[in-house]
Design brief:
single chain, 0% strand, globular
Length: 402
Amino acid sequence: MEGRLIEAARAKVVAALAARFRDLDLAEEAFAEAAASAVTAWRRDFPDSPPGWLWRTAYRKALDIRRRAATRTQAVFDEPPPQETPEEAMIAADQPIPDERLRLIFVCCHPALDGASRIALTLKVVLGLATDRLARAFLVTESAMLQRLTRAKKKIAAAGVPFEIPGPAAWPERLDAVLTALEIAYAQAYEDAALANDTAGFAAEVLRLSGLLAELLPEEPEVLALAALVRFAEARRPARLDAAGAMVPISLQEPHLWRGDRIAEGAHLLDRAADLARPGPRQILAAIHGAHLSRQETGVTPWGDIVRLYDALLMVRPGAVTAVNRAVAIAEAYDPEEGLRAFNAITGERLASWLPWQAARAWLLDQTGQRLAAASAYDAALALNPPPAERLYLECQRRRLG
C-alpha cells in the first residue's frame, strides 16, 4: 500500500519541489529520499495525509541536500511554507489543467527542449520510468539516454525555464510531446500482458489521463485518437492471457472476451476525431486497433485493410516499430515469405536487443518453415528477459519447435 500512495503523490510533490527550487535533479533526489524514509516511518506511525507528509519531508530533504552541497558559501533558506488553507486549495483546484500529474507533464514538455528530450524527461520525472526502460523504449543505449536526460536538465537550468503551469495558449506547442509521452508510457504497460512489472500502473493512469485530455481539448483530433486507441487496447485486456497465464497474440484472442463498452467508447472518440478532418498518426493507429476489433462482429480480421493503414502510418511516422508491425500484417494478409522480405528490409541500430523485433522475427521464420532459425530467434527473444506472460508464450513456441 505504501508504494501505491508514494507513487500517487510523486507528480504533485516533484512539481512543487521543482517550482520551489528550480532544480529537477534536486526535486527528484529529495522525493526519492522522502519516499525511502516513508517506507519505514509509516509502518510505525501512518500519517493522516501521506502526500502532505511526503511534501514536508521532501522539502526538508531538499534543504539538507543543498546545505551539504554548499561547501564554500553560506546559504540562508526559508522555512517550509505553511499548510495550505482551504482558500488556497480552491484556487489550486481552478487551474486550467485540473490534475497534478498532467500539469507536470505539460511543464516538462517545455519547447526549450528538443522533442525527444522533452518526452524522455517527462517519462523519467513524472512517471518515474527507469533509465534502462527509457533506453529500450527509444532504442538507444542506457548511457546515451542518461546523457540525454542530463543535457535536458542542464539546459532547463541554464535557460532559467520556469516551472510554471502553462496557460491554454501555450498548450499547442507542447501537445505532441505530451501525447507521445503518454503513448510511450502506455506502451510500457501494454508490453506486459499480465501487468506484472513496475509499469503496470501506467495502463490505468494513461486511460484516465487520455480521457481527461479529451475533455480539456475536444477539438484536437490527435488527443481524441490517443484516448480512442488506449480504450481499444484496454478492451482486449480480458482476452490477453490464457488459462496458464501465457500471453495470447491478438490474432488468437477470443473476441467474445473483448469489452464492448471500451470498444464503443473508442469508436465514438475516433468518429469525433475523423469529423474534425485533420488526420494524424494516432488516428491511423487507432484505426488499426479498431480494424482488429471488427473481428468481434465479422469473425474475420481485415488484414488487407490493416496493411494499407500501416502503409499510411509509415509515411507519417517512419520507424522500426511501424515497419515490424507492417511486416507481420503483410505475412497475415498475403504471404509469410513476403512478410519476411519486408521484415528483412528493416534497418536500425540495437534492433536485436528489442524484444518485439526478435519475437516477430521468430514468428516469421516459423511461418516460412525455417524451424532452426526460428528456434534460434525464440532463444534470442527469451534472452531479453521478457515479462512473465510473454515468457510463457515464447517458451511454448520454442518447445513446439523441438
